[in-house]
């Protein structure tokens, strides 16, 4: 029975060590995923700041462009009025309008090119942010799964620890009971040894008494035989 208890204890200790190693591995993986999640969060914040900065820059450039167009229009209108006052030739007015239209066309194309470039840049940053969000979501899901596994391993370890402690208490109780039983048996053996020695002494005394009685009987038998063998009347 004791050997079975020790065998069970050995098995539980082995399972406990295995679960403990699994828990340590899960904790290590959890720390790694926490770092990956923190890195992904940092990248996401950086991308958000870059997008915000880019939007501010686009807004600023639009404002500057609008101001430049407005200022140029004002200058050309003033120049056109001055020229119209001084010159009445229609071809000069037409030339000024053509120059203005060409400038506005060039400015519009430049603005369109700038907007397309910034839109492409914004789309690229948005895509990076989306990938970062997806990676962060996957990391959070894996982190949640590892937390669940870690909690499960912790419960199993606590269960095994409780079973191990219970076995240790039972083994201690069995050892104490065994020690008490051994002590009782040793006391009983001591008493039996004493009684055996006493019995041996009494038996030796009985043998000696029996031998003495046997010797007396033999002597009496000899005397009786001698008495019977004598002739009648002789003393």
From TrEMBL:
SUPFAM superfamilies: Intermediate filament protein, coiled coil region (SSF64593). GO terms for biological process: intermediate filament organization. One of its GO terms (cellular component) is postsynaptic intermediate filament cytoskeleton. Keywords: Coiled coil, Intermediate filament. Residues 1-235 form the IF rod domain. It holds the Pfam family Filament. GO terms for molecular function: structural constituent of postsynaptic intermediate filament cytoskeleton. Residues 129-216 form a coiled coil. This is IF rod domain-containing protein.
